[in-house]
Specification:
heterotrimer; A alpha+beta; B alpha+beta; C alpha+beta; A: alpha+beta; Uridine Diphospho-n-acetylenolpyruvylglucosamine Reductase, domain 3; Enolase-like, domain 1; 5-stranded antiparallel sheet; 11 helices; 12 strands; globular; B: alpha+beta; Aldehyde Oxidoreductase, domain 4; 3 domains; 7-stranded mixed sheet; 5-stranded mixed sheet; 27% helix; 23% strand
Chain lengths: 262, 796, 153
């Protein structure tokens, strides 16, 4: 993969200008560049912008776009507020060496279907903050993308939540066949499903069935799990058929819900 | 899955008998190259490339089947730094086989270095050389090729007698009758029958029929196929390559380029794994073409994608097994019919197909009738070739599935069914005599077979209780056990030959030169152990150099589990000869008869104790001090086996199956093996362990997938994942005491036996858990769930 | 373009293209201990440490290494030899192609954990280092023994 011109701006303002006005391509984790055969006229490296952080600001948590998966996996604040959710979400990704490189921003901006992280972020009700001041619901961004060249600065998370992530893979380090995260925010249930193989979607009908009751019955959990499979679309790819995805999703969702409910 | 709190097996503190018997052999000595490799010292082909080498890239076919109408290199050659673009016009039109096998090869000569037909997506079209890799890649993209697209044959079940003929060209031929009928898309065919199988089956009160379909598999040796070439001072072509068979490569290249063999030298440096994937010519012809055209060194390292798409895979096979037995489980007849898919070219076609029967059927030698037959067909997919197990894994997958079905049908413990029918020490099987590798076989009495001991110990380690093979560990999640037994061979009798030369050096150490090819297996180390044991010296006194056609004696190469048994026997013979020569020389110095010399602890003494001379001192005498009597003391010996004594293995697996999702995990895999004397027990065990994991990969994870147009979809390690260290719970490998009289210090082999059992053992465990017999590999969660559902529907 | 970085403690100035990854750059500079196994970031054979953290050099943009400290197994040769002794004693070493990357990751793991990791943690930390020759068992035994010996010191 070729980068014709490389820039490493030291201010977010400058980075944004290069992207908007000079057709620059943001370089986040850069792990995908190796398999990419296209040519990038102007690469805008975000590594100099100080966007690698996990911090609490007011009533939410901010995760900078250049925060690595490894940081998500090991960060004490995330563990304290979300339990093992982030660790289980990202730990299947290849190995620590790759997780020391790939970033939240790269994954979110890429809206990749196979992403595990996007599923958990959507389930948590994360918001994406685009420089300079646009805040968009992450699930909405994943579904619709952006119209103009953008610079993703950070992701906003709630201060805490209870959630678990479940998935199916053929082998441990493979891409997922399907994944799901179920979250009790403290006032409502949220369910997200990804790798359908298409990108993450929320399950509003299933969520509506669960409502605001922190302890739904087993039957209601099972109904919600089935509803999630009914309201989503699935496709076939090299790893699995649409039918299989539709078949096992209720199993995974049910298990995730039961684990969160207790 | 994670289950690393699985209880560690009962400790086996007992030392092997062999370890107590020998000083160096059967000891866990570290590999001679171990530290150097961990530190990453330059040792592999791509680390040694000469500084001004040209970079070579290949133009490859985007079509599964096509005729090349024209190749226009103009745009490519216009790039500064691009040195040449070579096509089929630049190489003699000589049909060869790329299979690394002895001469005459049992594989059809159906391949031209570059041809006017391309027969799979990725087939080579043109060779581009440039000053940098990036330039070569760019130039390869600029070569304009016009194709006449042809309709491909992609399903091996429809290849035979298909009106589309994949090899219509004249000039291709078999080297001796192998059933080669290219007009019917048949690369090879074979059948044999002992007794009357149909009659015996008809008379059998209990019958079983099982058909399994094993998929193609990729070797995924971590080092991609790489070679570089240059012209040496004497104007000879030297090729340094990641290969398993230097001599076959030299001979076949000589044939392809119509060059005398004395003009070619092949060197194998350290290589990063082979498993059969490098038991072929791969990129050597292309670097050779560039070097011969330009006079410059040339280097080609395949990308991982090219390794997947355009080297070799395992043969996909459909194996149908019919068994006839009595109600007590006594086997009366076995029929095995195989359809094998050799892809675009017929490398290893006949031999892998025959091994499916020749290295499985003898396990049950008490039958009255046994039959084996089938075809190997061409398809427009990447060529299938040699891969560890070499047909035995596919054949065993069918045979051991049928045996378990029989056990279920007659209601006895599958372990007892094996024990009541299997081969024992002192016995033989007619199959040995009839089925060889491409030719007739060699009769063999089994002088070592410890299957009983392997089974007994395996049962202990897994905790086998026939009355309790299955238990539920969580709602819908079952743990279940299954088993299988296996045999393989040790070299190809009367066909594989290895030689060794040992020479005394000043300083009292020995040079050991062997043609034998260390793929990372540690053969340099174990061959040195054999020499050290016989010569009564330490490992540090043996310096090994291997696999250089100019400097080491002949060896067919590393395949067919031959290195320990064949090459090792040559080393032992050479060491014995050398020892005799040393004693003779010292006896002459002392003026006594050789029988009056005692040699022990690196010292020669007369029997009466009056004279003594250390090996070290003698080494200086014979090279510097002894005037007219000075001479180099060396011995060269060769060995070709008159038999191929099988190693044996009993496998017991515990799986966990989630019946709601179909996910199957291996919790514990136990393998107990009889390899004869293990020259280095640790290295023998890790060979078996690695084979097991590859077999588990075939059973559960690995699949070679194609699009409808014949493009390989699983073309990198993202789309073809090999097992990681989080995929399997625990693998336990143990060896039992055994001694093979015909082997060096009692050794047989360990290279392939490990891979054979997992597909059958895992299928048998799933069958025990769920009552469902899965036969389509790999057992992905989707396949398993579908099979469970289908079975449920059948029963409602 | 030109980048200046420390490789195994030595300051080096290296030519590279903006889109190049660290693996090719390091091998061109003579660091053959960094291996190319898969081209897709799956195998771990290309592992190096950048400022002490294990990364896949095949997925690390070379220009980003400007001003950083890159360590290959050669940079930790003394410690690598200690670990290699345990590995070879278990007979766990085969073709060696995965070994430099795998050994480096083991050394990084040793430094990252304050106490001895258990088997599950070891397997997880090293999950990105694939080996096709072995079944991983001997490697795990070697790592456990090595870590115990380190802690005893």
């Amino acid at each position: 993969m070729e980068i014709l011109k490389y820039a490493c701006p030291q201010s977010t303002d400058e980075a944004f200008r290069l992207i908007r006005e000079e057709h620059g391509t943001a370089i986040g984790g850069a792990a995908w560049l190796r398999t990419n055969t296209k040519t990038i006229a102007l690469g805008v490296d975000l590594a100099g912008l100080g966007l690698g952080y996990v911090r609490e600001i007011g009533d939410h948590i901010e995760v900078g776009a250049m925060t690595t998966y490894r940081e998500l996996e090991t960060n004490p604040l995330l563990r304290a507020r979300f339990g093992a959710l982030f660790e289980t979400t990202v730990s299947h990704v290849v190995g620590v060496q790759l997780r020391n490189i790939i970033t939240v921003g790269g994954t979110v901006a890429g809206r990749y279907g196979f992403s595990d992280l996007n599923t958990t972020l959507c389930a948590l009700g994360a918001q994406a903050v685009f420089y300079p001041d646009q805040i968009i619901d992450l699930a909405q961004f994943i579904e619709r993308g952006a119209e103009a060249p953008f610079l993703l600065e950070k992701v906003l998370l709630p201060a805490s939540a209870k959630g678990t992530y479940h998935q199916m893979r053929i082998s441990e380090n493979d891409f997922p066949i399907i994944n799901t995260t179920a979250v009790w925010t403290g006032s409502e249930w949220r369910i997200a499903v990804g790798s359908r193989p298409a990108a993450t979607r929320l399950c509003p009908k299933a969520m509506a069935l669960l409502g605001a009751d922190p302890h739904p019955s087993d039957d209601i959990l099972a109904s919600a799990a089935r509803a999630a499979a009914d309201e989503l679309q699935f496709g076939s790819d090299i790893r699995a058929s649409a039918e299989y995805r539709r078949e096992i999703l209720p199993v995974l969702v049910r298990r995730a819900l039961m684990e969160v409910r207790g | 899955m994670q289950n690393n709190d699985y209880p560690t097996p009962l400790p086996n503190d007992a030392t092997l008998e062999a370890t107590e018997k020998f000083n160096v052999v059967a000891h866990d000595l570290p590999k001679v190259d171990g530290e150097g490799l961990v530190l990453g010292r330059p040792a592999y082909t791509d680390d040694l490339v000469p500084p001004n080498a040209l970079y070579v890239k290949l133009v490859r076919s985007p079509h599964a089947f096509a005729r090349i109408l024209s190749i226009d290199p103009t745009d490519a050659l216009a790039l500064p730094g691009v040195v040449c673009v070579l096509t089929w016009k630049d190489v003699p039109r000589i049909p060869i086989t790329r299979a690394g096998q002895g001469n005459p090869e049992p594989s059809p000569h159906d391949r031209f270095i570059l041809d006017e037909y391309v027969r799979y997506v990725g087939d080579e079209v043109a060779v581009v050389a440039a000053e940098t890799e990036a330039l070569a890649e760019k130039a390869a993209g600029l070569v304009k090729v016009e194709y006449q697209k042809l309709k491909p044959v992609l399903d091996f079940e429809h290849a035979l007698d298909n009106p589309i003929v994949i090899h219509p060209e004249p000039g291709i031929h078999e080297m001796f009758p192998i059933g080669f009928e290219p007009k019917r898309n048949i690369a090879a065919a074979y059948h044999m029958e002992i007794g009357d199988v149909e009659q015996e089956l008809a008379a059998s009160p209990v019958k079983v029929e099982t058909t399994v379909h094993t998929q193609a598999q990729q070797h995924v040796a971590l080092e991609p196929h790489t070679a570089f070439s240059y012209i040496d001072l004497q104007g000879r072509l030297v090729i340094v390559t990641s290969t398993q068979n230097p001599w076959h490569t030299r001979r076949l290249l000589g044939l392809a380029f119509q060059m005398p063999l004395r003009q070619i030298r092949i060197v194998k440096p350290r290589i990063g794994g082979g498993f059969g994937g490098k038991q072929h010519i791969h990129v050597e012809p292309y670097v050779a073409m560039v070097t011969m055209k330009t006079g410059r060194p040339a280097r080609l390292a395949l990308t991982r994608r090219e390794v997947f798409e355009a080297t070799f895979t395992r043969h996909e096979m459909r194996v149908k097994v019919r068994l006839g037995a009595n109600p007590d489980g006594k086997l009366r007849a076995i029929d095995m019919q195989v359809l094998s898919n050799t892809g675009a070219y017929g490398e290893h076609a006949l031999t892998t197909f025959m091994v499916a029967g020749s290295k499985t059927l003898p396990l049950y030698n008490k039958v009255s009738a046994v039959r084996f037959g089938g075809h190997v067909v061409y398809t427009n997919k990447v060529s299938a070739g040699a891969f560890r197990g070499y047909g035995a894994i596919q054949g065993l997958t069918g045979l051991e599935a049928a045996m378990d079905e029989l056990a279920h049908k007659v209601g006895i413990d599958p372990v007892e069914l094996r024990r009541n029918n299997m081969l024992h020490e002192g016995e033989t099987s007619e199959v040995f005599r009839i089925m060889g590798e491409g030719t007739e076989g060699v009769a063999m009495n089994i002088e070592s077979c410890k299957l009983e001991e392997c089974i007994a110990r395996g049962k202990e380690l897994i905790g086998w209780d026939f009355t309790q093979l299955v238990r539920e560990v969580a709602p819908g999640v079952l743990r279940a056990k299954g088993m299988a037994i296996a045999m393989q061979g040790s070299g190809i009798p009367l066909i594989d030959m290895g030689s060794a030369r040992i020479e005394l050096q000043d300083g009292g150490f020995f040079k050991l030169h062997v043609g034998a090819t260390d793929l990372g297996t540690g053969s340099d180390t174990i061959l040195a152990q054999i020499a050290a044991e016989e010569l009564g010296v330490d490992m540090a006194d043996i310096v090994v150099y291997s696999s250089d056609t100019d400097h080491t004696p002949f060896d067919v190469g590393a395949y067919a589990s031959s290195t320990t048994y064949v090459s090792g026997s040559a080393v032992l013979k050479a060491a014995r000869s050398l020892k005799a020569k040393l004693i003779e020389a010292v006896a002459e110095k002392f003026g006594v008869a050789p029988k009056d010399i005692v040699y022990t602890q690196k010292t020669f003494m007369t029997a009466d104790g009056t004279k003594s001379l250390s090996l070290n001192d003698f080494s200086y005498d014979t090279l510097y001090h002894d005037g007219e009597k000075m001479k180099t003391i060396e011995a060269t010996e060769s060995f070709s086996g008159s038999k191929s004594p099988p190693p044996y293995l009993a496998a017991f697996v515990e799986i966990e199956i989630d019946t709601e999702t179909g996910k199957v995990n291996v919790v514990h895999y136990v393998a107990v093996a009889d390899v004869g004397t293990p020259i280095n027990p640790n290295l023998a065990k890790v060979q078996i362990e690695g084979g097991l994991l590859q077999g588990i990969g075939l059973a559960l994870y690995e699949d070679v997938r194609y699009s409808e147009a014949g493009h390989m979809l699983s073309h990198n390690m993202m789309t073809y994942p090999i097992p990681s260290r989080e995929d399997v719970g625990r693998i336990t490998v143990e060896l039992v005491d055994s001694y093979e009289p015909s082997g060096p210090f009692g050794a047989k082999s360990a290279g392939e036996i490990g891979i054979d059992t997992p597909p059958a053992a895992i299928a048998n465990a799933i069958r025990n858990a769920t009552g469902v017999r899965l036969t389509e590999y790999p057992f992905t969660p989707e396949r398993v769930l579908a099979a469970l559902k289908a079975a449920k529907t059948q029963h409602t | 373009m030109n980048i200046t970085l420390r490789i195994n403690g030595k300051l080096e100035s290296i030519e590279c293209l903006p889109g190049e990854m660290l693996t090719e750059v390091l091998r061109r500079a003579g660091h053959f201990e960094v291996k190319k196994g898969c081209d897709t970031g799956n195998c771990g054979a290309c592992t190096v440490l950048v400022d002490g953290k294990p990364v896949l050099s095949c997925s690390y943009l070379a220009v980003r290494a400007e001003g950083k400290e890159v360590t290959t197994i050669q940079g930790l040769a003394d410690e690598a030899k200690k670990f290699a002794a345990f590995l070879t004693a278990e007979g766990a070493d085969q073709c060696g192609f995965c070994a430099p990357g795998f050994a480096l990751t083991v050394l990084a793991m040793k430094d990252e954990f304050s106490s001895i990791p258990d088997e599950a943690q070891i397997r997880h930390y090293l999950a990105g280092n694939l080996c096709r020759c072995s079944g991983y068992e001997g490697q795990i035994r070697a790592i456990k023994k090595y870590l115990e010996a380190q802690h005893a010191e």
